[in-house]
Write a structure and sequence with these properties.
It is a single chain. Helices cover 27% and strands 19% of the residues. Helix 3 links the parallel strand 3 and strand 4. The N and C termini lie far apart (40 Å). It is globular, with a radius of gyration of 14 Å. Helix 1 runs parallel beside helix 2 and helix 2 runs parallel beside helix 3. The chain is of the alpha/beta class. It has one domain. It is built from four helices and eight strands.
Length: 132
């Protein structure tokens, strides 16, 4: 499988990719994930806690992350995102039955000016949209 590339706009579309988890590993190994600002993993195969740990480790530039219908990650993976993706402003988590309110409440923060931070502007989870 060829290593996917991040678009010139910083977007990586792995939606419905059967081996999205492996593609994220390739992106991390090549350094491309460090430059990604938007990552769409909706319905991606193999997106588990190890994949989200890589996203957390290399996703400091991410502003948007779509994890809709990724069923293989748990609170552990989401907490990796919360710790590492500090620029995230949009997070979508629909259709995952393994995560709990505990990890969702730890949603990443995005810089909001000198010395201040705010939570994601939009967290989409289950059938509701949460806006701080």
């Amino acid at each position: 499988m060829a290593t996917p590339e991040v678009g010139s706009d910083g977007h990586m579309n792995l939606r419905e990719h059967k081996e999205a988890g492996a593609a994220v590993r390739d992106l991390a190994a090549s350094g491309a994930l460090d430059k990604c600002t938007s990552l769409d993993l909706e319905y991606g195969g193999g997106v588990g806690d190890a994949t989200l740990a890589l996203v957390g480790d290399h996703g400091g530039q991410l502003r948007s992350l779509n994890l809709n219908a990724c069923q293989d990650y748990t609170d552990e993976g989401l907490l990796s995102i919360a710790r590492g993706c500090t620029s995230l402003t949009n997070l979508s988590l629909y259709w995952n039955v393994k995560i709990t309110d505990e990890s969702v409440s730890q949603a990443p923060v995005a810089p909001a000016g000198p010395g201040r931070a705010r939570k994601c502007r939009r967290i989409a989870s289950c059938a509701s949209r949460l806006s701080p």
